[in-house]
């Protein structure tokens, strides 16, 4: 049975791709000499299924800044796994249907809760600074929410002593990835809860100081 071929550790699955005949598409992790490699795979033998896989891979490269390397595997230029982030890139890529939908996200997002435009600026070395364009009395808190949310979604590390910077442990820049994760960063529930709790205790701590 071809299914017994080791294609790696499954990271994520889209059980029914509603943009292509409800096929199942999986994301698998393999070890490369240069770090983690990702396989986008379907067992479907339907005509066109491989074209859909090729589309998803291309979309992941644009949305997440991945690149296609040896044997058709995707990888981040830094070689890191960035597990949560790559899963998110995969899921978002599978939501898209045509090439015109596939556009890298900007390094800014409208925070609906405050009406502020939240901006991520690259500081270098994989570190990003979050600031807000616009007026809101909630601005300090919302920056903490977005910074913490981004940290959580991207498994990024808070920069000690400040509430508005996070960085990747690989120390490499990932602009496309940050743009993609930023869309959801204002709504990460666990971060919202943490900030509520520290506010109620009157403690001002970095939102993503936890592991
Ligand atoms: Zn990296």
Q: Can you walk me through this structure?
A:
With 211 residues, the protein is an alpha+beta fold. The protein folds into two domains: 2-101; 108-201. The protein has helices spanning 49-64, 83-94, 139-154, 175-182, 189-201; strands at residues 9-17, 23-32, 35-41, 67-68, 74-75, 108-111, 116-124, 127-133, 157-158, 165-167. The longest helix has 16 residues, at 49-64. It is elongated, with a radius of gyration of 19 Å. The site of zinc ion has 8 residues, from loops.
What labels describe this entry?
5-stranded antiparallel β-sheet, single chain, 10 strands, 31% helix, alpha+beta
Summarize the structure.
By secondary structure, this protein is of the alpha+beta class.
How many E-type strands? 10
Helix % is 25-40%
Strands of the widest sheet, in order across it, are 6-7-8-10-9
Q: Ends: how far apart?
A: 42 Å
In total, how many domains does the architecture comprise? 2
Shape: elongated
Order of helices and strands: EEEHEEHEEEHEEHH
How does the helix and strand content classify structurally?
alpha+beta
Largest sheet: 5 strands, antiparallel
Question: Given the structure, what is the number of helices?
Answer: 5
Mean pLDDT across the residues is 91
Low-confidence stretches: none
Q: Taking Cα atoms only, what radius of gyration do you get, to the nearest Å?
A: 19 Å
């Amino acid at each position: 049975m071809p299914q017994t071929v080791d294609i790696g550790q499954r990271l994520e699955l889209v059980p029914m791709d509603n943009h292509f005949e409800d096929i199942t598409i999986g994301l698998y992790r393999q070890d490369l000499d240069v770090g983690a490699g990702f396989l986008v795979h379907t067992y479907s033998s339907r005509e066109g299924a491989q074209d859909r896989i090729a589309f998803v891979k291309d979309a992941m490269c644009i949305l997440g800044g991945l690149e296609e390397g040896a044997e058709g595997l995707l990888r981040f230029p830094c070689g890191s796994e960035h597990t949560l982030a790559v899963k998110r890139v995969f899921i978002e890529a599978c939501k898209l249907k045509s090439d015109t939908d596939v556009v890298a996200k900007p390094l800014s997002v409208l925070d609906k809760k405050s009406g502020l435009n939240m901006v991520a600026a690259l500081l270098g070395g994989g570190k990003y600074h979050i600031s807000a364009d616009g007026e809101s009395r909630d601005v300090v808190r919302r920056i903490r929410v977005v910074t913490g949310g981004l940290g959580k979604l991207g498994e990024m590390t808070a920069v000690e002593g400040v509430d508005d910077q996070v960085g990747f442990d690989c120390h490499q820049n990932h602009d496309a990835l940050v743009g993609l994760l930023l869309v959801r960063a204002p709504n990460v529930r666990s971060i919202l809860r943490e900030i509520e709790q520290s506010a109620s205790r009157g403690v001002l701590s970095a939102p993503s100081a936890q592991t």
